[in-house]
Structures are given as C-alpha cells and as structure tokens.
Amino acid sequence: QVQLVESGGALVQAGGSLRLSCAASGSRFSNNAMGWYRQAPGKQREMVAIVNSGGSSNYADSVKGRFTISRDNAKNTASLQMNSLKPEDTAVYYCYFWDLRAYWGQGTQVTVAS
Predict the structure, then answer these.
(1) How far, in Å, CA of 67 to CA of 82, rounded?
(2) 61-96 residue pLDDT tens
(3) What is the pLDDT of residue 53?
C-alpha cells in the first residue's frame, strides 16, 4: 500500500523560504512520476511541480524560478524548495505519486504572511 507523508509546512513571512519533504513507501518509487499540488481555500487543487522518473520536471507558471522540485530515489523522498514566497502561495500542499493511479499525502499547510 502506497503511503506518502509530507512535512515542512509552516507560517513564513513574504519573501521567505520553506522546504517541503515527502517520504514515500509501498511502491517502486523510482519508476514513476511524483510531485506537489496545492489547494487554497475556495479554489481547486492545482499542480505546482512534477518530476518524472528520469528527473525531468515541470512547474506551474506561477512558481517558475522560485520553486525547485527534487527527488532522491535511493531514499524514496521528494522535496520542494520554495523561495521568494508570496501570500498567494498560501495553501495546503499535497505530495502526489502516480502508480497506475494517483496517490496523495495528507497535506501540509503553508501560510505566507504579507
């Protein structure tokens, strides 16, 4: 059974940085895409960043140049480095993993104060 556990969410001032981590278990992590989505109050869940098994990544336009996704296949972990945070980045961030279907973590709250 696939399990994803996020950590690293916090309250931070605008312009600050945070690093989110996701620990995965229960699947062949290295063979599949994984990434981060977020959902702000009253809005739909949206893709933030995805990295495939080969290491290629895609980012939402709103975070390009500020966020960096990475993965460590040996440790079954993925991270999201978030710099120059803005109040509009405030959301619950979910780790995502694809293995014949989508799997989601429980979410971690990121709040950016202006």
Answers:
(1) 4
(2) 999 999 999 999 889 999 999 999 999 999 999 999
(3) 86
Q: β-pairing, 34-39 with 91-98?
A: antiparallel
- With a pLDDT cut of 70, the percent of the chain lying above it is 100
Q: What is the rounded CA–CA span in Å between residue 102 and residue 96? A: 7
- The whole-number average pLDDT for the span 33-55 is 95
d(CA 53, CA 51): 7
Torsion, Cα 70 40 99 20, to 10 degrees, reads 30
- Edge-to-edge strand ranges of the sheet holding 3-7: 3-7, 18-25, 77-82, 67-72
Cα three-residue angle 66-42-69, rounded to 5 degrees: 25
Distance CA 30, CA 7 (A): 20
Give the integer Cα–Cα distance in Å for 107 and 31. Answer: 23
Give the tokens for residue 82: 């978030």
